[in-house]
């Protein structure tokens, strides 16, 4: 397990900062968000400190979606978002990978999302497909 002495989420995992813990295993920690967008808004964080998803070993990610599912069920959320941001321009505030499970009970509570879709050039999309496929 990797941690950072200055990281607020690492401090929460260690118990140095109190939280409303909902779930804990050897690899992840889940707790209620203290600035929720809706009732039941929770965070799921790997116990391995890394700023971006690409910094986290796969074994620390295996439980994330099953726990998000459990949290959504526990919150009786029929509509919800699972959100994960990487980097400040992508709206990441805390530099430790974290996943939000945000219930969306109505149009005004929960996550509001804009989706500025772009027109597609099929030739460029095909070239991108080949480029990405060759790197996976």
TrEMBL record:
Reactions the enzyme catalyzes: adenosine 5'-phosphoramidate + H2O = NH4(+) + AMP
Keyword tags: Hydrolase, Magnesium, Nucleotide-binding
PROSITE patterns: HIT_1, HIT_2
Residues forming the catalytic site: 98
Coiled-coil positions: none
Cofactor: Mg(2+)
Domain HIT: from-to ranges: 8-111
Biological process per Gene Ontology, one example term: nucleotide metabolic process
Gene3D superfamilies assigned to the protein according to its UniProt record, in alphabetical order: HIT-like (3.30.428.10)
UniProt record similarity statement: Belongs to the HINT family.
Protein name: Adenosine 5'-monophosphoramidase HNT1
């Amino acid at each position: 397990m990797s941690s950072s002495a200055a990281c607020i989420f690492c401090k929460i995992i260690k118990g140095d900062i109190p939280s409303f813990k909902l779930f804990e295993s050897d690899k992840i920690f889940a707790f209620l968000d203290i600035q929720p967008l809706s009732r039941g808004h929770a965070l799921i964080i790997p116990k391995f400190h890394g700023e971006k998803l690409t910094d986290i070993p796969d074994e620390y990610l295996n439980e994330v979606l099953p726990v998000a599912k459990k949290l959504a069920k526990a919150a009786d959320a029929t509509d919800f978002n699972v959100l994960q941001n990487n980097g400040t321009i992508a709206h990441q505030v805390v530099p430790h990978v974290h996943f939000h499970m945000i219930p969306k009970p109505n149009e005004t509570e929960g996550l509001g999302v804009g989706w500025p879709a772009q027109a597609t050039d099929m030739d460029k999309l095909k070239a991108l497909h080949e480029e990405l496929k060759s790197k996976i």
